[in-house]
Amino acid sequence: MILLINFKTYPSATGKNAIKLAKICKEISRKTKTKIVVAAQIADIHNISKIISTVSQHVDYFDQGRYTGYVLPEAVKANGAIGSLINHSEHKLSLDAVKKTIERCKKLKLKTIVCAASLKEVKKIKEFKPDYIAYEVPELIATGVSISKVKASSVKKFVKLLKGTKIVPLVGAGVSTGNDVKAALKLGCKGVLVASAITKAKDPRKVVLEMCSQA
Ligand code: G3P
196 CB under 6 A from ligand 1? Predict the structure, then answer.
């Protein structure tokens, strides 16, 4: 089971707080032997990647050179990232940009975790052969209402869409408890993406431990 924790831009997961939370995640990953990956803000990747497997929350597909203010795959790789989220619903890309970004990351052997907001989008994105597809229904994000509970039949269809491919199915949006994780795994997913249940928790250690105990 893979637990991908998206730090987003939550204050509890930024700068020194990101380091503190990453250390908690690493400790629990070791204790439970669960693979935890953190999606850190660009500015935190260098520090967080020294603690735990880290991916960027986005990268731009442009070539290196005369671009200002963009973040290229080479830069996140040079700072320790092992991959990147692509097309998160909070940082949406065109289909053409998704394709180009996957190609750029593949050339650098960066793992590609592409987010899809609908089964229709899953069908299009799977053609680009990313390493992972994370099915996340935007309207459930940060609600605490888990996609693995209220969209179980869609999640089952999602898993079926990836059968016979090498693409690993992940789900996210509203995943908040160990039971939500268990339900996702039962539906055939290989892991979950979680943000607010951990970044906004009074006791993140307790939440991460509960989720990892479902593996
Ligand atoms: O990338 C995962 C994220 O969008 C899910 O958010 O707060 O519902 O766990 P949340």
Answer: yes
